[in-house]
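Predict the holo structure. Ligand: tryptophanyl-5'AMP.
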Amino acid sequence: MKKILLSGIKPTGRPHIGNYFGAMRQFVELQNEYECFFFIPDYHALTTVQNSEELKQNTLDVAIDYLAIGLDPEKVLLYKQSDIPEHAELAWIFDCLVTVPYLERAHAYKDAVAKKKEASVGLFNYPVLMAADILLYDTDVVPVGADQKQHVEIARDIAEKFNRIYGETFKLPNAHIMKEVAVVPGIDGQKMSKSYGNTIPLFAEDSDIEKLAMSIVTDSSGGVPKNVYEIHKLFRSEKELEKLYEEKAGKYKDLKEALIADMKNFIAPLRAKRATIAGDTGAVLKVLKDGGERTRALAQTKMDLVREKIGVKLY
Ligand code: TYM
């Protein structure tokens, strides 16, 4: 029996190379080894995207991205969260177990409060819905970037609490975080993030690659521009880079041009594959719909057990 792996990319904008190296690349590598669930958390996206046309387009885009990076719908389950209402149902059951002070310690909520943003109840409960996403399918492994580590820990805590109260029901999941790419920096050196506007899109056009690479913030201490190097090492081995960065020490423009050439080589075939897939949106939607139907059957079986455990199943 293969172990179960599950992960998701939120449909909140174009994926960037941080998403790819931190998480998506592992999806492709691991799809043969595990029983895989890859989904699009569209209900999670509602905390930030509140425009129906935008959410529809973003969701279709992530489905295309999944196929373009090489996920094979014959091997893995590809679906969107909203096709499986059991996610939201289970989240409510978990809501009744989790305390407010516990969730107040979650990073995303604390950040929102620190920035004096008015947090929605959805943002506050975000980790609970994510726990439902994960626990519903008896997931063993969740490949994510370091920013999602706390969320997987919360899912474990919730599983433990449920099991303690109602008896053994949920498996405890583990995060799978690749150390070298746990936090991919953006062009300003902070974590690459859609919300910081410092990203290099995974399917960027050549002209954008040039513009973005040239705007990577360099500090002038020593000959190696750290932010350029940290991004460059995603595309070329450190052994090769050491030589290049030694030869071109202090020549930031040359180093950025070398990075641009490597990024273009890497992104061009992905972009071409994506364009082909995007040419037949009907086929993409069919993959998503079929995946949703197959996955829902599994979710229903698990929820039947959960309903029995909590005492709402009378017939
Ligand atoms: P999202 O869409 O923000 O990010 C998708 C994946 O990309 C990783 N990531 C990064 N990794 C390294 N460096 C970076 N700069 C970087 N930026 C993003 C994220 O860690 C993530 O793995 N909450 C999730 C979506 C979600 C989910 C789930 C994931 C909902 N339910 C259940 C796994 C399991 C999110 O916002 O990802």
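The mean pLDDT is 96. The first strand starts at residue 4 and ends at 8.
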